[in-house]
Amino acid sequence: MLGSTSSSTGISMSCSPTTKHHVFLSFRGEDTRDNFISHLYAEMARKNIETFIDNRLARGDEILPALYKAIEESMIYVVILSENYASSTWCLEELAKILKCRERYGRHVIPVFYKVDPSDVRNQRKSYAEAFVMHQHRFKDDQLDSWKKALTQVAGLSGWDSLVIRPEHKFIEDIVKDILRKLQLNCSFVSDYQGTIGIDKHIEQIQSLGSSAAYSGGATTANPSSKSIYDFTVKDISGNDVSLSQYCGKVLLIVNVASECGLTKSYYKELNILYEKHKNKGFEILAFPCNQGRSQ
Predict the structure, then answer these.
(1) Domains, the chain, ranges and CATH?
(2) Is 219 helix (H, G, I), strand (E, B) or coil?
(3) Family assignment (predicted)?
(4) Active site residue 94
């Protein structure tokens, strides 16, 4: 089951498409693939962050439709701005698409300045200026201007600078922590307001752990500010224990187990009925076992 995203940013948003990936990683392979990118990707995998990464070494000039689709279906974009990033028209097209999705859906973009000065990216100096000297022989001015505007825009966002002295492993850990925080801010909780009993108690539990929530029309959207919010264990429609941390960035339809806490056949039947009822809305169907504390 796939979920849709909710965003707490102030950007004007239209309806977001269903998402498949937590993170889309945009990078220039020849600069970073065999060192920084491999380490960053491994750390994200260790934290169960589902990441789209394009592993093809050879790229033409035209960005593939499948890559556009992956950008549309990702919640957060991490853009690794390295020395030769701007020399790739493919990377520049990726960036332009990413920023359109940021504007349209209110998604987070995290720039990572890898061994480059952010001001050189913002103002297209040094290797970034050299890249556009090369591009100007093949592309029209309006295309060049749109790419320059995209670089200026992404360089103005809050991000991470590798030139600030720190060990690389700490740099990567800080980036991944930032991604996790932003994923937590994208998690929505929706109760089955047509008769679910006891859900408010669990929403209160979530709120008491440090989230700020707004309730309207039977739907509760929680914006967690504490990692412990995701220590809750819930049940999926097969009756398996799952952690809320696995559902960052998704819209959850949360129901409550019967007061006796019996995991009966009728309970699972009811959960599956709810799933059939709501599956086309992009919800994940989960349940809080009653009298539950936080998972250990």
Answers:
(1) 21-183 (3.40.50.10140), 187-288 (no CATH)
(2) strand
(3) Belongs to the glutathione peroxidase family.
(4) yes
Predicted TM-score of the model (pTM): 0.64
Helix (H) or strand (E) holding 119: helix 118-122
The pair phi, psi for residue 179, each rounded to 5°, is: -60, -45
Q: Which amino acid is at 18?
A: T
Q: What three-state secondary structure class fits 54?
A: coil
At residue 73, φ and ψ (nearest 5 deg) are -95, 20
Complete DSSP assignment for 137-174: TTS-HHHHHHHHHHHHHHHTS--EETTSSS-HHHHHHH
Q: Which residues of the chain form beta strands (DSSP E)?
A: 21-26, 51-52, 74-81, 108-113, 160-161, 188-191, 212-216, 219-223, 233-235, 241-243, 251-256, 284-288
The contacts of residue 59 (CB under 8 Å, 6+ apart) are 88, 90
Q: What is the rounded distance in angstroms from the CA atom of residue 291 to the CA atom of residue 103?
A: 42
Please state, in angstroms and as integers, the Cα–Cα distance from residue 205 to each residue in 32, 49, 208, following that order. Answer: 43, 25, 5
CA angle, residues 154, 129, 24, in degrees to nearest 5:
30
How buried is 164 (Cβ within 10 angstroms: 0-12 exposed, 13-18 middle, 19+ buried)? exposed
Amino acid in the structure at residue 295: S
Catalytic residue among 72, 83, 93, 94: 94
CA 223 to chain centre: 14
Q: What is the pLDDT along the chain (296 residues), one digit of tens a residue?
A: 222 233 333 233 333 556 788 999 999 988 887 789 999 999 999 888 889 998 754 455 456 788 999 999 999 999 999 999 999 999 999 999 999 999 998 899 999 999 999 999 999 999 999 999 999 999 999 999 999 999 999 999 999 999 998 899 999 999 999 998 888 655 544 444 333 334 444 444 444 433 332 222 223 333 333 333 445 566 666 667 766 656 555 555 555 444 333 445 555 566 666 666 666 655 565 655 444 433 33
